[in-house]
Every structure is written in structure tokens, then in C-alpha cells.
Amino acid sequence: DTGVSQNPRHKITKRGQNVTFRCDPISEHNRLYWYRQTLGQGPEFLTYFQNEAQLEKSRLLSDRFSAERPKGSFSTLEIQRTEQGDSAMYLCASSLRYQKNPYEQYFGPGTRLTVT
Amino acid sequence: DAKTTQPPSMDCAEGRAANLPCNHSTISGNEYVYWYRQIHSQGPQYIIHGLKNNETNEMASLIITEDRKSSTLILPHATLRDTAVYYCIAMDQTGANNLFFGTGTRLTVIP
Known about the structure:
Chain A is built from no helices and eleven strands. By secondary structure, chain A is mainly beta. In chain A, the strands form two sheets. In chain A, strands 2, 4, 5, 6, 9, 10 and 11 form a seven-stranded mixed beta sheet that branches. In chain A, strands 1-3-8-7 form a four-stranded antiparallel beta sheet, with no helix packed on it.
């Protein structure tokens, strides 16, 4: 078990460019979550997958954001036409549906996005 | 889900117990109290959770008042590695699966 991994760890992009982040959850975990964290704030929920199905999306997830989880394994989060307000840490977490503690989520180290 | 209130920051001497309070006066009967922490430049880490009874694990103890309107996370012997932001979350386990973190308490363990 190598934990949740995220790539890249850091991304600097110019406003208007598209970016894509990848998350690899713990192998047997069927639930996958994306959160966004800005400086001085706690993580904010963006979206959630159970296997390959995207079951919930936050109102924070504007139409410039899209997330996928093909085959229920890794997930990608794409941001189109980036804006300076998208600068944040993007965190991925995973969990197992039938584990004893449903809110015990395992987080990756995050991808820090800077939009210049 | 119930809103929680935590002090923005606390200090604790190394080796002493760190007691982190959390108010959740609007908590409902089926909402659990979860604690997570986030060490600088890392993702959040689960610590402990409880419903009514006090709980203890290898990381911490959770004391929940009888009326369930507040709780305290106790780190019995704080070390420098416990310096982190600690989040108290009240969640209904039958509802949404996302965690609402709030702004937490920044604990600084002082040598």
C-alpha cells in the first residue's frame, strides 16, 4: 500500500491555459474525492466518485472544471481556461465504501497550482 | 450537518498534554464528531471519531460532553511533530460523503 499519490506536485501555468491533474488512490478504494484548499482555509469539497460514477459535485465546480475516473481507478481533474482565482492546492482522497469509518478518508499530498 | 467552532490557534509545551476544544452546539443525534489534522505541506490525516462515548486510539483521546454540544481532542504528550492544523468535523454518516473542514485550530508545540 503506497498511499494516495498525486501528480504533478506543483504546476505553474499562465492564465487561460488548460491544466490536468492526476490522482492515484489506494488500490482497493472505490471512493475518490477531490478538494480544493486556498491559503489559510480548510479544504473545500469539489466532487466525489464511487467507482467510475461521479455521484456528487459542489457548486464550486464551475463548468471550466471536469473530473473523470475511467474504469474506477485513477482520476483526473482538468481546469480549462485557468484564472488567477484557481490558484490553490488541489487535494485528492480515497476511501473504501464498506469500511468501518465512512468518513476516514486518505489524502494525497496535493497538487499546488499557481496561475500567473 | 452541524457547524463547529474552534479557536484559531493554540500553543502547547512539548511533552505536555494538548487539549483542543470544539463547540458543536447544533449537533444532531446521528452526527458523529470527527477529527483530522493537517501538517504543513501535507494532506489531512484522520485522527479519531466518536458519537457519544469517549474514544481513545494510539494517536489521541476524544472526550465528548454528555449533552454532545462540545468535545475535546487530547494529545497526551505533544511532540514537535504534532504541530499542525486540527479540524473538528460533525457529520451525519448517512448523508453526503464529503468532509466540511472549516478553518480549524493551528496548534504549535513549543520546545
